[in-house]
Write a structure and sequence with these properties.
Layout (H helix, E strand, L loop, with lengths): L2 H11 L2 H8 L5 H12 L5 H9 L18 E14 L2 H7 L14 E5 L3 E7 L3 H5 L7 E14 L10 H11 L4 E7 L2 E7 L3 H16 L1
Antiparallel strand pairs: 1-3, 1-4, 2-3, 4-6, 5-6
Helix pairs in contact: 1-4, 3-4
């Protein structure tokens, strides 16, 4: 076995999502080859990497998860912010006042994610200044703007299936799209990315949907 094939097989061995997608023949091998070649700095040609992928022993791969939902809805929203706050009693007290700043009837967004050390607030950029005023400067750890939010709405039985998140994140990773945040609230999967990547990400997920329906 040559070095390129050994390197590629080792990489695939360590990624369960890629193995499953190769087994189901729902992954673009050339796109995967480009990703692996760049990720591992392989000097051999792209065709050599594709050849190594095709030689991967798929007979040994067992698929335990249920099928990916064949139909889901996609929606996208731009001009989103991602605010990081300290996780302390003062911040918790002020969080309860945020909903009154949001006009939900206009479709405005407010998402709050509580972690161990920090709290994330995600919403529309037009409300960022109002929200920032509710917190002391020392409690504002970081903020990102010029983001987009893509929501995938799955059928009701999607929460009984495994591998959905990995399938979506793998698709975006193969297209060189970094995730700023990812949230799940069945039957919705919400991803936050840089606004400059939004069209590329939306097209990628739309293509994935078409492939699932075929």
């Amino acid at each position: 076995m040559n070095n390129t094939r050994r390197t590629v097989e080792k990489f695939i061995d360590q990624d369960a999502a890629i193995k499953r997608d190769l087994k189901r023949d729902i992954i673009n091998k050339r796109a995967l080859a480009r990703y692996i070649k760049k990720k591992l700095n392989i000097t051999k040609s792209i065709d050599a990497v594709i050849s190594a992928i095709r030689r991967y022993p798929l007979d040994e791969v067992e698929i335990k998860d249920k099928s990916f939902p064949r139909d889901f809805k996609l929606s996208m929203k731009n001009e989103i912010f991602d605010l990081s706050l300290s996780n302390n009693p003062s911040v918790h007290e002020r969080l309860s006042k945020l909903p009154q700043l949001i006009d939900f009837s206009r479709g405005e967004t407010l998402r709050i994610i509580v972690g161990v050390q920090s709290i994330k607030v995600i919403g529309d950029e037009r409300n960022l200044k109002k929200i920032n005023k509710k917190f002391k400067n020392e409690n504002i750890l970081n903020q990102k703007t010029n983001l987009s939010e893509i929501t995938l709405t799955f059928p009701k039985d999607a929460d009984e299936r495994t591998g959905i998140v990995s399938r979506v994140t793998n698709e975006l990773t193969l297209n060189d799209i970094n995730l700023a945040e990812i949230m799940s609230s069945a039957p919705e999967l919400i991803i936050v990315i840089k606004e400059k990547d939004s069209i590329k990400a939306y097209k990628s997920l739309t293509q994935m949907k078409k492939e699932e329906l075929n």
